[in-house]
Amino acid sequence: MPELPATPAPDRTSIDRRKFFGVTAGAAAASALLNSTAARADAAVPTGRHRHRRVRFGVNYVPSENWWFSWSDWDRRSIAADLDDIASLGMDHIRIMLIWSELQPNATYVRGELLDRLEELLDLADRRHLDVEVTVFNGAVSGVLFVPPFLISNSDGTIRNVLTDPTVIEREQWLLGQIAERIGRHRRFMGFDLSNEIHWFAKPLGMAVTQAQGDAWHTALFDTCEKVAPGKIHVSGIDHWPWQNNDFWTRQGLGTAGTMTANHTWAGWTQVIQRYGSLSTSSTHYSEFFVELIQAFHADLKRQIWIEETGVSTVWMDAADIPTWTERSIRAMADCTGLFGITWWDSHDLNPKLTGYVDLEYDLGLFTNDRKLKPIGRTIRKLIAEYDARPPSPSPRATALVLPDDMIPVADFTAFFDPFMKLVDRGERPAVVLQSRTTDTAYLASRGITHLVTPRDV
């Protein structure tokens, strides 16, 4: 394929992403918002009513009217109303999706209009005291693929590898700089999330990536994030896949890359809900398990874990069970010391006028598509209010389940996941520790671990 330009020019299909898993306000108000002064870091910054929560609560924003096609079909009144909904729950942040192919259709060109809209979205969020995590290289969102045209060869249709091609990576770094130049000092900009599960973009397009190459991509992109937007929360949104396979990234690399470790915990996508039962220990403590598992791979004990996506659909369980499942799941996560925050997927049900999505994508919202609060939304609102009044205090985890360093933690759910859940059923609050750390007494003491058990002991 011809080489991409290396010198920046002036600034100005559908697939089920989890199928690879083996188990098979009025016009006047709108005008005022449009003309409001951008909230910049050098302006008077408000304290932020929720930024000092022990556990931060947010939601993955999905526009109720035009989904993320909203970047092209912008409706600020609808978006403002959506954000009012989110703020009414007591949320302190949102995570948003840029559409890569819309924002950067050419290697050396970023659409200025979309940067304007991104900045306006942060302004709208600011009026509602919502911080914003911006997810950038989105080639796959809710099972829909978005391929930037400059990646595609016009001679044979092959697609450049977004994780290994040096010229593509340089263009990715340039894009981060362009976005940061526009919003990097906005007081509501939390940071960059590199991508929404970029492996589900790479896999169906045949992009071969070794774990070393995946780790190197993280290093290169996070170095750029810190250079163009220093001191922000920069993460990589990844689900269960590299914890079930030796694929794309090393688990040690995931435990050190970026500001904190982000993870997407979907007990339905991995068939845990279906296999163990809606309100089983394994289902309601699934996210807790991942928080504790990931913590075992942290070299820095102060490093935090962000459950950046979690959610549930009526495709996976009866609607009557969803509020109970949600409350139990959140309480279990909040009982973990290393938890930064929980960002639910998602804000609003998918607009039924849009076709071609997997069925469950249509009812994952806390609000219906016409902005009616659902029982799950009421449950989360209640918990947020409770935790604001009485912040959750994590339980000590004196017992740790030992994970062999060479074990793929959830290649199946019998070898390690099941023993963890048996300990929970016995009334334990287990931690996880790598076998190679079991003789490090200072490390164990720093985590409050006094008793080690192996999976065979359980």
TrEMBL record:
Q: Which domain of life is it from?
A: Bacteria
Q: Which InterPro entries match?
A: GH, TAT_signal
Instruction: Please name the PROSITE patterns in this protein's record.
Output: TAT
Q: Report what the protein is called.
A: Uncharacterized protein
Q: Which organism is it from?
A: Actinomadura darangshiensis
What's the source species' lineage?
Bacteria, Bacillati, Actinomycetota, Actinomycetes, Streptosporangiales
